[in-house]
Amino acid sequence: MLMCRDLATIASDYIDGELSGRQNLSVKMHLLMCRDCQTFIGNLRASSELMNAHSSRKLSNEFLRRIDERVARALAEKKSENQNQS
Amino acid sequence: MATPVHLETEVSLIDALKRGDSAAYETAVREYSSGMLAVARFYLDPSSAEEIVQDCWVTVIDAVQKFEGRSGLKTWLHRIVANRCKNRLRTANREVPTEFSESLEPELANRFNAKGRWNLPPQLQFHDSADTLMENGALSDCLDKHLSALPETQRSALMLYEAHQRKSEDVCNILDVSASNLRVLLHRARQKIFLMVETFQETGEC
Ligand SMILES: [Zn+2]
Question: Which of A21, B30, B38, B98 could form a disulfide bond with B156, CB atoms 3.0-4.6 angstroms apart?
């Protein structure tokens, strides 16, 4: 039988729909009987959503501008190369 | 979070990149660099990672001419970054991301009794939606703090899993990890955030 600890171990797989049919069923059965695990799954899912809303890195403007400059320089070099060829 | 580029927009963006349109590069740099940096930081220290991302954008100028759009621009860019990082690591000593055999966080694992039942079950429900929780400025700051304290491997895995619409295969290819290792990285990261939000809700402290 699936215990609470087992369920906590595979909880992310359950949330992401990565479990096999049989495993999925045994998690569902457990959740029908166990309030604590219901709360845990709900909270882990909420944590995951919270993190998704927050996870993209804020890039510094300085970093972005440095890339812009390097790209602009490379584009200009390429253009002048092409002009020399034609 | 950056708004996803739609397919049509992506096609015209790629055309503009091929033409060497500098405004298109500025748009693309802002749209994709954050994911690219996540890939790079999975493999390298922060400053080498930034360097690699910059170098990649310069190589994109030529490489994009041969891009046929089979994989989507984002996946293609992520692969370029991953390959560069792997090349660099080949010369250095590669530090392989730790394989965990146990996917439970110790702090959580301690909360079960010998029979595997909850000893210290979760007390509160995080019933609010992510949006409502995010409006709590203190929680949001706390989350920032904890996210930046996550190991880079977990943080990148998590971010890229979402960025690639939860297609494990793409993420595994880019990060060069097995499917089971990816599952562990994701689960570890989520548990840490779970523990953090729980502490915050119970004590109001970060
Ligand atoms: Zn249970």
Answer: B38
Say whether residue B68 is in contact with chain A using an 8 A CB cutoff.
Answer: no
Give the total number of structural domains in chain A. 2
Please tell me whether residues A79 and A45 are part of one structural domain.
no
**pTM score above 0.90:** no
From chain A, pick out residues whose CB is under 8 angstroms from the CB of B50. Answer: 63
Architecture of the CATH domain B106-203:
Orthogonal Bundle (1.10)
Of B78, B204, B205, B206, the C-alpha closest to B147 is B206
* Closest residue on chain B to A7 (Cα): B116
Question: 3-class DSSP state for residue B70?
Answer: coil
State in Å: Cα A28 to ligand 1 middle: 11
Residue B146: closest CA among chain A residues belongs to which residue? Answer: A51
Which of B193, B197, B200 is the best mutation test for A, with the most CBs of A within 10 A?
B193
Q: Which of B2, B183, B194 sits opposite A13 (nearest CB)?
A: B183
| A31 and A1 fall within a common domain | yes
Domain interval for residue A17: 1-55
CATH placement of domain B7-89: 1.10.1740.10
Supply the ipTM of this predicted assembly.
0.84
- Answer yes or no: do A71 and B61 touch at CB < 8 A: yes
Cα(B38) to ligand 1 centroid in Å equals 35
Q: Tell whether A45 and A21 lie within a shared domain.
A: yes
Selection from A66, A84, A86 nearest residue B58 by Cα = A66
What CA–CA distance (Å, rounded) separates B203 from B7?
A: 45
For the stretch B86-145, pLDDT in tens is 999 886 655 555 555 578 999 999 999 999 999 999 988 887 666 777 778 888 889 888
Answer yes or no: are the C-beta atoms of B150 and B187 closer than 8 Å: no
